[in-house]
Amino acid sequence: MSLTQYNLSELSQKIKSQAVTAREVVSDYLKKSTADFTSKKSLGVYLTLASEQALSRADEIDEKIASGEEAGELAGVPIAVKDIIVTRGITTTAGSKILKNYVPPYSATVVEKLENAGAIVIGKTNCDEFAMGASGENSGFFPTHNPWDVLRVPGGSSSGSAAAVAAGFAPIALGTDTGGSIRQPAAFCGVVGLKPTYGRVSRFGIMAMTSSLDQVGPFTHTVADAALLLKIIAGFDEKDATSVKSVVPDYPSLLNKDIKKIKIGVPKEFFGEGLSADVKKVVEEAIDKLAELGAEIIPVSLPSMPYALAAYYILCPAEVSTNLARFDGLKYGESLREADLLSTLAKTRGELFGREVKRRIMLGTFVLSAGYYDAYYKSALAARQAIKNDFNRVFKEVDILATPTTPTTAFELGSKNQDPLAMYLADVYTVPVNIAGLPAISVPCGLSDGLPVGLQLIGNMWQEEKILKVAYNYEQATEWIKLTPEIKS
Fold first, then answer.
1. What are the pLDDT tens digits along the chain (489 aa)?
2. Among the options 14, 16, 82, 195, which is catalytic?
């Protein structure tokens, strides 16, 4: 059995027991990843492979283990990191040509925490430019392909991270989730994707897209692995003003408890028009399985949900237009110099930013402009509060919510590029969670025409342990965790 077929927990145990070395594990993953990276039929998973740094780090871990030193919970385990998360000494582009040569002098807090636990960064994964996209096609360099069907999208914006775990190019990966960018690609690629409560995990060192929504989270093969990663990366960070002082539970120790009598709400707004009949059937079967495991299934309603997507695509571009103002060809990133300042700015942003980035900057500038602020931005803020109020009300009746992660399975590459609104609808079931700042997880729950379907479990703020426990029980009672794609390129 190849070392690239083990999950996080299995790999860590083998390395610590010296059954294999960290160098052997890292070498296996790099060999597999490099073969794809250099192939003409590449899945487009990685933008950068950190081979030298990773092997050097592996040798350090092996020396620690050999000498009896504590090497950390993740000793020697490779990890892929979304290229919007800065990594010291490793090129970080945010999937944009404007940062194609940027090498950060520091690492994000989440990367530091994982490295302190013994993890080894082996590469930076492809993503929609500055995390703007729902398909993985908006990278400034090349698209990512779905390992289950290379003619389909892997989801976005954390496309490379989801595909890396699904294809066996990394046992674990980090992504960011602003409107579903972890859960949606996790569903499309058939892996576990966890979005923590906003403020649970430090955002320091994350290139901001929408500061009030962005959150870091893991991609893994199992719920247990996701729980362990969350335990490691969670916690207050004084370098992040959005980080919250809240007790971090020992998530892995809370998984192995039954879910009898736990109340699971099923919101009718997530099962209406637009949901594929096949996806609906698979998700309803998953909810039936939760009932078999002892959960109480309760129909609920969240009437403000139809406004969530519209509110998101006002709030998100508004913050994008502010956050990306710094990339002007003068202070940050590449610069295409012209005779005067205005021409330099226009040429740099016009040629180095992609179409979706420019679209959102223009939308954001418009909704924040004089005469339109009240009509659009303030209305979106009111909708945001209504959505939060709906969730608060429902969580007085139930413990968690169960919904589809996406309305369809992975769609074909290029099929929605000319219709931004159709593309945005891919996030219709994930966006409300970000608007309310809640935790949610997507777990594989079946197949539709040979493509993965995701079950989304949503919890109240700071209650990740509830969704992890239910997800773990479901995972252990089904066979979907064992399914892996047969990559045909």
1. 678 888 888 898 899 999 999 999 999 999 999 999 999 999 999 999 999 999 999 999 999 999 999 999 999 999 999 999 999 999 999 999 999 999 999 999 999 999 999 999 999 999 999 999 999 999 999 999 999 999 999 999 999 999 999 999 999 999 999 999 999 999 999 999 999 999 999 999 999 999 999 999 999 999 999 999 999 999 999 999 999 999 999 999 999 999 998 999 999 999 999 999 999 999 999 999 999 999 999 999 999 999 999 999 999 999 999 999 888 877 777 888 888 888 888 888 888 999 999 999 999 999 998 888 888 999 999 999 999 999 999 999 999 999 999 999 999 999 998 888 888 889 999 999 999 999 999 999 999 999 999 999 999 999 999 999 999 999 999 999 888 898 765
2. 82
Please say if 124 is a catalytic residue: no
pTM for this entry: 0.96
Q: Which one from 157, 159, 202, 448 is the annotated catalytic residue?
A: 157
H/E stretch holding 174: strand 172-177
288 by Cβ neighbours in 10 Å (0-12 / 13-18 / 19+) ranks as exposed
Selected catalytic residue, list 9, 181, 202, 321: 181
Query: Measured at the alpha carbon of residue 106, what is the angle toward residues 81 and 112, in degrees to the nearest 5?
Result: 55
Active site residue 157: yes
Is 82 marked active-site? yes
Task: With CA atoms as reference, report the closest residue to 123 among 168, 170, 71.
Answer: 170
In terms of residues, how long is the chain? 489
